[in-house]
Amino acid sequence: MILIKKFDYFSQYTTPWHQHTAGQLYQIKRGVIAVETEKAQWSVTAGTLGWFPPGNRHRAVAIGAVEGISFYLDLDDCNLFPSSEGIYGADPFVLNLLDRTARRHDPDDSKEYKSSLMTLLGREIMRSPKLALNLPLPDDRRARNVADALLKNPECSWDQEQLALKWGLSSRHLSRLFRQQTGLSFSQWRQQAKIIASLPWVLAGQLISEIAERSGYRNVSAYIEAFKKRFGQTPGQFQINRRITTSSPK
């Protein structure tokens, strides 16, 4: 372990693009943080952990007010963790282990003790489910500009043709780029971006009808169906599961 850093970001706070020689593990206490790499956007919520190995160029964007902790791991510790970035489910045991790690980051702790904590934490994360909280991003600069604009403003009312024209593309070319570089059609990608962008509202307990409207869905049923297709559970179940996961055992 190299460093433990707490953060408390206001909505839309964005870090510069950067990379570390250390691995970075995000634990979110409140809100949602979107970590954008060269290839994808990863959404870290309460009850999940975001892992990014050393040398992974990225930036972080606060989706609403967000509070959490970053654990920076040295190369030896990183060998205990997954070799690629990802979002992992965190049960109460893992969250308690992280809390203990944060509290016990003391210069007087023995090297063996710190090593034991990292070994156990790495093993638990390797066994944790990898969650579908990532959204692939296109490589083409113009298509990426479209993606960035929609990620920044998922409520944008512009249609595909308008977005393509703004960034010097035809609607057909934009569709082809998204299909080739993300594996999704433009409409599929945009729908998933809206669903992921709605997570802070879901976790905050807002009415599903209001969330559906803000996300651009004509009715609640369509929103719930799209959410369930993406995450395998309804918005209500997702909220309950995150609440259960982050609750410490008595």
Automatic annotation (TrEMBL):
User: Which InterPro entries does the record cross-reference, listed alphabetically?
Assistant: AraC-bd, Homeodomain-like_sf, HTH_AraC, HTH_AraC-typ_CS, RmlC-like_jellyroll, RmlC_Cupin_sf, Tscrpt_reg_AraC-type_HTH
Q: Which GO terms describe its molecular function?
A: DNA-binding transcription factor activity; sequence-specific DNA binding
The record's SUPFAM superfamilies line, in alphabetical order, gives: Homeodomain-like, RmlC-like cupins
- Identify the keywords attached in UniProt to this record, alphabetized: Activator, DNA-binding, Transcription, Transcription regulation
TM spans (from-to): none
Q: Quote any Pfam family the record assigns.
A: HTH_18
Transcription regulation in keyword set: yes
Positions of the HTH araC/xylS-type domain: 144-241
Name of the protein in question: Arabinose operon regulatory protein
